[in-house]
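It is worth pausing here to work through a concrete case rather than discussing structure prediction in the abstract. The textbook approach is simple: state the sequence, then state the predicted structure, then interpret. We follow exactly that order.
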Amino acid sequence: MTNPANTMPFSRLMGIEIVAATKERVTGTLLVRPDLCTSGGIIHGGAIMAFADALGAIGAYLALPEGAKGTTTIESKTNFLRAAAEGSIVTAETTPINIGRRLSIWQTKITREDGKLVALVTQTQMVL
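Step two, the predicted structure:
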């Protein structure tokens, strides 16, 4: 599978790897590099949000109705639950909560290698 994140320049810059992608589930991984961290050596909240946004966008794009041109994020909410250390790999799994004609809502769970939840993100994507 070609990495869909490579079509998004910022996601490519972050190093997001898509493991699987369907309109029912998108899974990806991200190495917590030093340039994605806060001064404390843990993943930056913005990196977490961008990771989730990329996966939600891919899911929304795959679920677009026929004739739609694209999708864009119009709302995103993140609950930060625990840290992920520099050098670790975080995994994200995005699933739809609702897919409508004009909007879709996606939930992303980001976990550490030990399976503990780092963040829970809910975003709304608008069909263009």
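Step three, interpretation. Helices lie at 9-14, 45-62. The mean pLDDT is 96.
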